[in-house]
Amino acid sequence: MSEVFSARTAGPTATGAEDPDLARARDGDDAAFTRLVQPLRRELHAHCYRMLGSTHDADDALQDALLRAWRGLARFEGRSSLRSWLYTVATRTCLDTVETRGRRALPVDLGPSSDRAVIGDTPLTDVAWLGPYPDAGLGDGPAGPGAHYEQREAVELAFVAALQHLPGNQRAALLLFEVLGFSAAEIATTMNTSTTSVNSALARARRVVAEKVPPATQQRTLRQIDDARVREIVTGYSAALERGDADALVALLTEDVTWSMPPLAHWYRGIEAVTDFAVRIPLTICGNWRHLPTGANGQPAVASYLRHDGSGPHLAWSIDVLTLRGGRIAEVTSFIGPGHFVPFGLPASLS
């Protein structure tokens, strides 16, 4: 796509009197430009994550988008809000990224579950994996007056994973309409297409998402569960792994629980298979665990640290995102790799 962006982009809000920093930025003042975009960086970054399914890709896309915006700012005439214009730039930048690589996946996308623990499972390095997103980067409530999703609902694992099954144009249309509250006409301008095409993309995207996302969001589920129970689940999960207590762990799980560990391809479904996996691998042969509570994708999560031998520090191992249902854990998604810890501001090791 072209790096030249139209200044006639519409958006959910309109600008009033011109910000003095905008005039300075147009004249080449990069400090003024930084002041303009700083309040919007978090929400733009979250948008890039929803589009791309990776915090690292979101970092790169946002940096590229802001560079494009800086270079094209002289052409911004203020006929829309700066925020709307920046979302246009960020969306087009993400669409360029989507065109150059395949969708991001979870193990459940690659094949059927395993009935028994797979010893010696090795990472798949030729798959672009979905990654977790730190709650610290999220706001609350809808981003626009017409938005249907809350900001936290729109980064839940099930929703972001479902988005990865959509072509880039459908992904962008759904996010701009349902999460950010843009109208179909505004989206058509953003994506250089017709309103008819946008409405068609929205209809197809909604069908796919409806098939893949549970009817009850995690935000609704968490509101129905007492906060103390959520803390109890997180603490109990951590303690059971640290003690090697299979009974305590199983007591926290639903009968149809799933456990996956990207970048490992094998995953497990159902209490029998998950128990066999847990007993034979994390509770037995992995080593000694320590945990820190955290939040990812608007869901409770645990940062897992592992010590393989009897001495030395516990090293960053995985971010375990917990999906709850009825006061129990229905899914564990363990994102393995120390690189996931950096965006969460977590230490690389525990002494």
UniProtKB/TrEMBL annotation:
Residue span, SnoaL-like domain: 234-332
One Gene Ontology MF term: sigma factor activity
Keyword Transcription: yes
Domain RNA polymerase sigma-70 region: 36-103
Region (Disordered): 1-24
Annotated ranges, domain RNA polymerase sigma factor 70 region 4 type: 158-207
Record flagged with keyword Transcription regulation: yes
GO term, biological process aspect, one: DNA-templated transcription initiation
Cited InterPro entries: NTF2-like_dom_sf, RNA_pol_sigma-70-like, RNA_pol_sigma-70_dom, RNA_pol_sigma-G_actinobac, RNA_pol_sigma70_r2, RNA_pol_sigma70_r4_t2, RNA_pol_sigma_r2, RNA_pol_sigma_r3/r4-like
Coiled coil regions in record: none
Protein keywords: Sigma factor, Transcription, Transcription regulation
Family per similarity comment: Belongs to the sigma-70 factor family. ECF subfamily.
PANTHER family tied to this protein: ECF RNA POLYMERASE SIGMA FACTOR SIGG, RNA POLYMERASE ECF-TYPE SIGMA FACTO
Subunit field text: Interacts transiently with the RNA polymerase catalytic core formed by RpoA, RpoB, RpoC and RpoZ (2 alpha, 1 beta, 1 beta' and 1 omega subunit) to form the RNA polymerase holoenzyme that can initiate transcription.
Protein name, UniProt field: RNA polymerase, sigma subunit, ECF family
Organism: Streptosporangium subroseum
Classification of source organism: Bacteria, Bacillati, Actinomycetota, Actinomycetes, Streptosporangiales
